[in-house]
Amino acid sequence: MTEDARARADVALAAARAGSAVAESRFRTDIDVETKDGKTDVVTQADRDAQAAVVDAIRERFDADAIVGEEDDELKSVPEEGPAWVVDPIDGTNNYVHGMRFWATSVAAVVDGEPVAAATIAPALGDAYVVGPDGVRRDDTQISVAAETDPERLAAVPTIWWDFDRREEYAAACRAAVERFGDVRRFGCAQLALASVAEGAVGGTFTNVAANPWDTIAGVHLVREAGGRVTDLEGERWRHDSRGLVASNGAVHDAVLAAARETDAARDD
Fold first, then answer.
1. Over the stretch 50-96, which tens digit does the pLDDT of each residue have?
2. CATH 3.40.190.80 residue ranges in the chain?
3. Looking at domain 151-265, which CATH architecture does it have?
4. Which residues make up the CATH 3.30.540.10 domain(s) of the chain?
5. Which among 15, 214, 232, 253 could disulfide-bond with 57, CB atoms 3.0 to 4.6 Å apart, if both were Cys?
6. What pLDDT is stored for residue 133 in this prediction?
7. Residue by residue, what is the 3-state secondary structure of the chain?
C-alpha cells in the first residue's frame, strides 16, 4: 500500500467514525422521517448531519478532492479521473428509523474510479470493517471470505431494493437463492451484506439493479481485498457504473451469478 493509500485509509476510517457517531447519537430517538422517491425511500436529518460530519473529516486532509454522496448537493456519480470520496452516511435508513441495528456509515476513497481504501462502521452492532495496510479487518480481527465450496452449506443475500413495481424480480431473487443455497438472508443494508461476504458469514450477495456507488463501493473493496470476487451480470469485473452486482467468496460465484441472472430474467422491460 502506497503512502497516499495509507493516508486515504486513515481518513476513510476517521471520517466513517465521525459520521457514525452522529448517526448513533440520534438512533432510537424521536426523529422526523421524510420520503424521497417512494414509500420505502426515506431520509432523516441524521443522514444529512452524519454526511456533513464525514465531509468535514475528509476536507481536513483532502480539501480539493471530489465527494460523491447520497444526501444534499454532493456529486451523484463517480469521476472517471482523479481522486474522489464516496460517502453513505446511513446505509440502511429504513432499518435505522425502525430501531433495527443493521445500518452503517461507509466511506470509500477512489482514484480514477477504482477504490483504494474503505471503511464501514456499524456502531449499533459494535463492528468496524476497514481495508488498511494490514489487510481487511473487522475491529481487531483479520477477516477473509468463506473457504466453503458447497453453496448448500452457505447463505446468500438478495440485496439493494426492488420497488413495488419490480416485485416479480424480488420474488425471483428469493426463489433463485433458496433453490441454490442452504439459506437466505436479507439485511436491508447493502454495505453490511457485502461486509458479511468479506468476513465469511455468507457465501454471496447479489442484485440485478443498477446500484448507487455509495451503497456498494466500500463493500466491494472489502470483498475483493478479503479474497472474494465481484462481477456484473455478464461475469465481468464490477465497476461503479455496472448494472447488477454479484459478490461472492469466489468458490461459489457461479451459483450466485446464476441466481442474479435468473432474477434479471424476471425483469419486465
1. 999 999 999 999 999 999 987 777 789 999 999 999 999 999 999 99
2. 151-265
3. 3-Layer(aba) Sandwich (3.40)
4. 3-142
5. 15
6. 82
7. CCHHHHHHHHHHHHHHHHHHHHHHHHCCCCCCEEEEEECCEEEEHHHHHHHHHHHHHHHCCCCCCEEEECCCCCECCCCCCCEEEEEEEEECHHHHHCCCCCCEEEEEEEECCEEEEEEEEECCCCEEEEEECCEEEECCEECCCCCCCCHHHCEEEECCCCCHHHHHHHHHHHHHHHHHCCEECCCCCHHHHHHHHHCCCCCEEEECCCCCHHHHHHHHHHHHHCCCEEECCCCCECCCCCCCEEEECCCCHHHHHHHHHHHHHCCCC
